[in-house]
Amino acid sequence: MAFSLALIILLSLVADHVFRRLRMPGLIGMLLVGVVLGPYVLGLIKPELLAVSADLRKIALIVILLRAGLELSKDTLNRVGMRAMLMACLPAILEGVAITLVAPRLLGLGYLEAAILGSIVAAVSPAVVVPLMINFMDRRKGTDKGIPTLLLAASSVDDVFVIVIFSSLMGLVAGTKVNLAAKLLSVPVSILLGVAAGLLVGIVLHRLFQRLDPRATKRVLIILGVGILLTQTETWLENIVPFASLLAVMAIGFIILEKSETAAHEISQKLSKIWVFAEILLFVLVGAQVNIHVAWEAGLAGAAVVGIGLVARSIGTYLCFLRSEFTIPERLFCVVAYIPKATVQAAIGAVPLTAGVKGGELILAVAVLSIILTAPLGAWAISLMGDRVLTQSPPDDTRESSAV
């Protein structure tokens, strides 16, 4: 496993450098390193490392979501909150419905199986979107209108909504009685519980830090450990009550920022150093999940389904900004930023096949294809368009403040 880690680190740093020189996000190079080193190409990543891949990816995602929370001001959240909730639902609904309607004709799936495919593909990837938005926030690009904050918040909630729909559809396939109204109600419940738990934990940690005054490094380790426990709590409560643990993680950072900006910035700086390694693990291990041979089986028909879904998603995203103060280029940037697929598709793409769903192999193939087509292209387009479209806030503007 040590040899695999060495290869991952060295090749990822080289790929990151090369892609940045090409004016493309380094994460694209890391994704490609994962694909090449993964079990479906060269097979140089040891099985024991792949066995803990999900946990390592989760920890890396926690690191970047903590950083995201430490950059979320109360004023900006108040302004973008309702629009973020709309973005978390409408684009995914339109994309899922479009795939449900076209997949039977193009792929020969039944409508229920097509709906399952739609619920898998319709999820945006916070693993791709959040790091790029943090980068824009660090450079104060678009922060005057809260655009990065809006997108990272919406992408995190989007996954909660989509996974609830997916679990409901899988219940129908299994023949279990599904109360769709109750399932949909679980979305706001999980969001509220997640945010409430994160705020409570954040307050407790703030008071603990005030009393004990540990060094910034120890504060980071404590927060990181608590974040991991919160995500595990979601698993423990899975069959009892819905709980959005990733939102809880972000809420911890938010409350610490509200209580002490100085402490928040210290912790954020430490996390940015950890992120250098965590980013490599996240994107290489996501890339290692991509089976290009399976994706090939989806063919042009699968690509057409993904493309039609993205068109519907883009329409839904643009509709979310009607009557907003965003310029047309800024709205189009948000449309592009909501394209990348990766984490959810890699995590649940194989579930229908494992559960014996008819057409499960094809569903997996299209899910993998959606990652290949959208993650690298989407990351590149976000980086390129963001630099050109988002306005630079003045250096002394330490808080995002403009209305949406």
Structure characterization notes:
- This protein is mainly α and 404 residues long.
- It has a single domain (57-281, 299-389), classed as Na+/H+ antiporter like fold (Up-down Bundle).
- It is built from 17 helices and no strands.
- Helix 6 packs antiparallel against helix 8, helix 8 crosses helix 9 (180-212) and helix 10 packs antiparallel against helix 11.
- Residues 397-404 have low confidence and may be disordered.
Shape, principal axes of CA atoms:
globular
Main beta sheet, described? none
Helicity, in percent?
Answer: over 70%
Q: What is the distance, rounded to the nearest whole angstrom, between the alpha carbons of the first and last residues?
A: 48 Å
CATH architecture descriptor name = Up-down Bundle
* Order of SSEs: HHHHHHHHHHHHHHHHH
Beta strand %: under 5%
Uncertain runs: 397-404
Sheet/helix structural class:
mainly alpha
What distinguishing features does this structure have?
404 residues, mainly alpha, Na+/H+ antiporter like fold, disordered C terminus
Give a short synopsis of this structure.
The protein is mostly helical and 404 residues long.
Helix and strand layout, with pairings?
Blueprint: H1 2-21, H2 26-37, H3 47-51, H4 53-69, H5 74-107, H6 111-121, H7 126-138, H8 147-173, H9 180-212, H10 216-236, H11 245-259, H12 261-288, H13 292-319, H14 328-337, H15 343-348, H16 351-354, H17 360-389
Helix pairs in contact: 1-2, 1-12, 2-12, 4-7, 4-10, 4-11, 4-12, 5-6, 5-8, 5-13, 6-8, 6-17, 7-8, 7-17, 8-9, 9-10, 9-11, 10-11, 10-12, 11-12, 13-14, 13-17, 14-17
